[in-house]
Each structure stands twice: as structure tokens, then as C-alpha cells.
From TrEMBL:
Protein name: Uncharacterized protein y4jA/y4nE/y4sE
Lineage, highest ranks first: Eukaryota, Metazoa, Porifera, Demospongiae, Heteroscleromorpha
Region annotated Disordered, chain positions: 1-39
Domain of life: Eukaryota
Integrase catalytic domain segment(s): 110-303
Organism: Geodia barretti
GO biological process: DNA integration
Any GO molecular function: nucleic acid binding
């Protein structure tokens, strides 16, 4: 210490004069510390890992073989040597081996979502929530639309994945939001697309294309089987259903008197999630386009050819 004798500095630092002299003239303690490279305890997999485990892993190109399965197998091969206490060590060994010798993994680059450009929508089944209405199992889906930049969402309970459910959900989302993005992204749901016989591709259904035209929306769709391309919606499904599940646990019951009661419960969960992104939504609202004067009327067309019991057309 500047201005102090070596004895005074040593006393101030709580060390002996000899130690103070040593650190003053030599390297600091952090610089003098040697690297710790040796094992402090015996390797429980010594003589086993190199010879017996790699063949098991090489025969598992999918990487689904679990450490618990391998530790059980080793315990059978070497009675009395292995137990569950070595599981964490084996899990680290598996992770290191697969990083060095396992199959190459597909790399996903994070997507950029400019303000006001895109919304994603999707349907998701909710059987894992185990919701009942008046004591009876309530089979249902959630329609959910999410702004890709801010994370604002709209969700509603629907009975099935139909165009009418899509139309109602999409329009309700846009009018609740109060604006329109440039693009709406989805998977190849049959509610919006149909298969082309010759090209084996898919095209927009006429009624869905007309709905998009009404709002000046462009459509983008993911490649078949590539759900990560609709990652915003997929992640939003997981987050919302997890929040609903947690809230049901706190509620103490998964039963509701009516479907409307359950729909109100879901709406409260959505509002709670949206409060977390109010700041980002405020920025994005300035980049959204205006709504049209009115929504598209929501109804379903049914074609029928009524006949009487004898088979002749009824009059």
C-alpha cells in the first residue's frame, strides 16, 4: 500500500510480513495457482467406457438412447459396480461423446421479425389440459394468432380446425388488435389450403384467399413437416398452454360450468400474457396498417339436395 511500511501493509491486509514480501516481489496468488488437471476421485467408468459404451452409442444414430438405460445395462454386465449415483457422470460423458462423434445436427438460425410485418397463426389440440365442462371431457382446440415481433397474441377456444373457425379467429384477432400486418404465416392447414393433384403442392382455398384480399394480407406458408418454420406460433402454443395448466392447478379444479366460463378463463390468461409485451406492442402498432371499414360476414355455405323418402325431389 502506497505510503505505508511493509509491516503496516501486511497488518492491514491480514497477512504475515513474509507473505507480503513474497507477493510484492513475485507473482500474484491468482497467477501462481497451477491448473487443476488431475482427478480427485477414481473414475467409476475406468476400463468400461472406452470398450463397452461406444458400440452402444454408434448403434444409436438418433441419439435416443438414455443414460438411465445404459447405466442399467452396465449394472447387469458388472454386478455390484454401478448404481444411480454415477448417473450424472454418465450423462456428461454421453453429452461429450455425442458432441464429438454423434451425427451432425441441423442448425436453425434465429429469424428476424421487423416491426409490423408478420403475424403467425395456428391451431393446437388441448387434450393434455384435461378440461371438463359440467363434469364431461371437453375436447377442443385453441386458435392462436401472434405478432412475430412484439409477441402480442389473440387466442380463442374452438371445436375443430375449419375455415369458419379460422375466419372467426383471424378477424377477431385483427379487430381486437386494431391493425393489420403485412403478412400472415401458417402451416398448410386444410382450413386454408388444398392439395394440387398435378404438382402435389398446395394452394390457397378460394374463401381464404378472399379473406386475405379483404384485409390486404399476403400469405406465407411453411414447408410440409417443418414446424420450426412456424416457430413463433409453436412456441406461443407451448407458453400459453403451460400458463393455462399452471393456472388450473392454482384454481384447484379443471371443471367449468359452461364452455363460455372456460373461454373467459382462457381470455384472462391471454390478457395476462399480453401485459408483458405492452411496450413492444406500442412500438409495433405504429407500423400496422389500418383495418377495412367492416369485417367479412361470418357464415358457412351448405349445399343440399333434399329428397323425399321415395327418392323424388321434394317440392
Amino acid at each position: 500500500m502506497e505510503g505505508k511500511t511493509q509491516e503496516a501493509a501486511a497488518a492491514k491486509a491480514g497477512m504475515s510480513v513474509r507473505s507480503a514480501r513474497k507477493w510484492q516481489n513475485g507473482p500474484l496468488p491468482s497467477q501462481a495457482k497451477s491448473e487443476h488437471w488431475w482427478r480427485t476421485r477414481p473414475d467409476p467408468f475406468d476400463g468400461v467406457w472406452e470398450d463397452e459404451t461406444p458400440p452402444l452409442l454408434r448403434n444409436d444414430p438418433t441419439g435416443k438412447l438414455k443414460a438411465t438405460t445404459i447405466i442399467d445395462w452396465l449394472a447387469d454386465q458388472h454386478p455390484g459396480r454401478f448404481s444411480a449415483s454415477q448417473l450424472r457422470t454418465l450423462q456428461r460423458r454421453l453429452q461429450d461423446w455425442r458432441a464429438l462423434h454423434g451425427p451432425d445436427r441441423e442448425v436453425y438460425f434465429p429469424q428476424e421479425h421487423p416491426l409490423g410485418r408478420e403475424a403467425q397463426f395456428d391451431f393446437t389440440h388441448c387434450g393434455e389440459l384435461r378440461v371438463t365442462v359440467a363434469g364431461q371431457p371437453h375436447t377442443h382446440l385453441l386458435f392462436q394468432l401472434i405478432l412475430s415481433h412484439s409477441g402480442w397474441r389473440y387466442a380463442e377456444v374452438v371445436a375443430s380446425e375449419t375455415f369458419l373457425a379460422l375466419q372467426q379467429g383471424l378477424q377477431a384477432a385483427l379487430w381486437t388488435l386494431g391493425g393489420v400486418p403485412e403478412v400472415v404465416r401458417s402451416d398448410n392447414t386444410s382450413a386454408a389450403t388444398h392439395e394440387l393433384r398435378n404438382s402435389r403442392g398446395r394452394a390457397l382455398n378460394d374463401n381464404y384467399a378472399a379473406l386475405l384480399d379483404h384485409y390486404g394480407l399476403r400469405s406465407t406458408r411453411i414447408n410440409p413437416g417443418q414446424s420450426h418454420e412456424n416457430g413463433v406460433a409453436e412456441h406461443a402454443h407451448y407458453r400459453l398452454k403451460d400458463a393455462i395448466d399452471q393456472a388450473l392447478m392454482l384454481r384447484g379444479s379443471r371443471d367449468f360450468d359452461t364452455v363460455d366460463d372456460y373461454a373467459d378463463f382462457v381470455r384472462q390468461m391471454v390478457e395476462r400474457r399480453n401485459r408483458l409485451v405492452e411496450g413492444k406492442l406500442e412500438q409495433e402498432m405504429a407500423c400496422l396498417r389500418s383495418l377495412p371499414p367492416a369485417p367479412v360476414p361470418e357464415y358457412a355455405n351448405y349445399q343440399s339436395n333434399p329428397r323425399c323418402a321415395g327418392g323424388a325431389p321434394s317440392r
